[in-house]
Recover the amino acids of this structure.
């Protein structure tokens, strides 16, 4: 959306540029004051105001609001791996693989057992610090089932570069079974 808005603004500026270029003198019929008002205020306002409204709306969707209770999953960082806990699925744990249901908001509660790490799934929402003794919240929503990559994004010692995890986005009807299978599969190892 942001890219589309920027492209529209760029196209409008290009049109103005071409008009002035092809018909020299065209621009001088408009007074400098009017250029500033039209080109500097009206033109960007047409594009930027809808974009700001959209950004605020999209941002609100990502805020963990009290009262609204989507799926909650805990992500615990530790030198140098990630454990995921699913309170809504009986508190089972998976290691190195985060399962999330597709098409619904999920609150990831991020914390650390030792040093500061950073939880990041580049394809999803922003990264967030994992701080020992503190729980930070990050709301994500994955639209398409599939496999994604996650990683630690804060230097946390010698094993930092290998502190990856994978994200399995499951169809909502498969989610509970997938978590259970992942948790018990590990238990048998
Ligand atoms: Cu954990 Cu870098």
């Amino acid at each position: 959306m942001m890219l589309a808005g920027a492209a529209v603004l760029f196209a409008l500026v290009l049109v103005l540029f071409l008009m002035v270029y092809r018909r020299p003198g065209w621009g001088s019929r408009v007074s400098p004051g009017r250029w500033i008002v039209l080109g500097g205020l009206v033109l960007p306002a047409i594009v930027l105001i809808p974009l700001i409204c959209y950004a605020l709306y999209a941002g609100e969707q990502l805020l963990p609001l009290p009262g609204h209770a989507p799926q909650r999953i805990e992500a615990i960082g530790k030198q140098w791996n990630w454990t995921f806990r699913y309170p809504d699925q009986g508190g089972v744990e998976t290691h190195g693989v985060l399962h999330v249901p597709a098409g619904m908001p999920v609150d990831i509660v991020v914390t650390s057992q030792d040093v500061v790490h950073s939880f990041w799934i580049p394809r999803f929402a922003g990264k967030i610090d994992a701080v020992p003794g503190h729980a930070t919240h990050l709301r994500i929503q994955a639209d398409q089932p599939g496999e994604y990559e996650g990683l630690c994004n804060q230097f946390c010692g010698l094993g930092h570069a290998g502190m990856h995890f994978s994200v399995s986005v499951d169809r909502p009807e498969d989610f509970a079974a997938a978590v259970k299978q992942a948790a018990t599969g590990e238990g048998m190892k």
